[in-house]
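Page 47, continued from p. 46.
Same chain as before, 310 aa.
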Amino acid sequence: MAVFARLAEAEARVHGVLVEDVHFHEVGAWDSIADVVGVCSALHDLAVEDVSAGPVALGSGGVAAAHGLLPVPVPAVAELAAGRLVLAGGEGELATPTGMALLSVLAREQPGLPSMRLERTGVGAGGRDTPGRPNVVRVFLGESVAEPVVEAFVFETNVDDLDPRVWPDVLACLLREGALDAWLVPILMKKGRPAHTLCVLVPPSRADALRDAVFRLTSTLGMRERPVRRTVLDRGWSDVEVLGACLPIKVGHRDGVIVQATAEYEPAARLAEVRGLPLRAVLDAAGVAAHAAGLLPGAPVPRLVSVLSV
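Result:
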């Protein structure tokens, strides 16, 4: 009923009349009724949950109709195709009002074949033979597979003409701009030039800002971008007493079990400076304190650890 209602709306618009006054011509023929009912019945019998269709070839030239010789696409097809990606695709009438009404009601537009686990393929052949063009419609039936979600990008660029003294500031600025991580890899470029590869782990929401930042902060003329997946541990913090001071221990955990526990670097460095001790001594003491507090791999996550998903 929705397909025929859409047809009536299109015919009413091109004829300039009310929907109630529309008189179907070719679309009211028995074969058109069979097309609409057959397609809807097939979708019902196959328990299809979603339908998509690519760009539609409308054709070109003219076609004889009840109103005389009409240009292709005929007015009703042009009306029904509004908003969709179309092309001529060849000579003759390649899309009928019935076909366009079915697509406009039942199928969302998708330029490429959607991701699916293909189960069956159906081919329907028409009665008209056009030289050089098989007059068939193909249908792919399958189980939908979710499109991969881009969790992050990695931006990379090779730089051989930047003052090495500015790299720490570049990395710090990128982190302030929202990078998930930023690092340098020493490389050797053409003609034996020492250089660095700048790598930036970028959340999709900050991609534009970090692109601008890389070009602004470095001397590069271009960079590579690739999507990546991330697997991260849930993490939280637990305070332990180290050398008479409170020191946060970062706890990485998964499924309620601690995987690793390490002292945060900056607080440990400040404590080492205050106590006049080597940093390694403070880190060693923090490791002993964390172990004594039960913060060791394989142990259950204690309740006092703030649970964060990153």
